[in-house]
Write a structure and sequence with these properties.
about 120 residues, four-stranded antiparallel β-sheet
């Protein structure tokens, strides 16, 4: 089993920055595909950024809406993933979730409990 705990959310003003953290525990989680999702009120959950393991180096991708403003990274030694968010906009307001996909004969998908990010003047 894998447990994911997010932190770092809060109430900020437009153009502010925040860094979200996701700590994984329970099993080794250093080479799995990881991602940040978000869900705004009344909307479906959407992927924000992902970091996929590759022997040639992690493959990173972003949703168009956050490109140039958000940066995903991870520290495998600490089993931790980060989302550095800059130049936040009101439309970034959502609950942000950490996601890990563990490959195997049956793929396992894990979610954290979420952390609220509110961007408001």
């Amino acid at each position: 089993q894998l447990q994911l705990v997010e932190s770092g959310g809060g109430l900020v003003q437009p153009e502010d920055s925040l860094r979200l953290t996701c700590v994984a525990s329970g099993r080794r989680a250093s080479n799995y595909d990881m991602a940040w999702y978000r869900q705004a009120p009344g909307k479906e959950r959407e992927i924000v950024a992902s970091i996929r393991f590759s022997f040639r180096g992690d493959i990173i991708s972003y949703a168009d809406s956050v490109k140039g403003r958000f940066t995903i990274s991870r520290d495998s030694a600490k089993h931790t993933m980060y989302l550095q968010m800059s130049r936040l906009k009101p439309e970034d307001t959502a609950i942000y979730y950490c996601n890990v996909v563990v490959p195997g004969p049956v793929e396992s998908i894990y979610w954290g409990q979420g952390t609220q990010v509110t961007v408001s003047a």
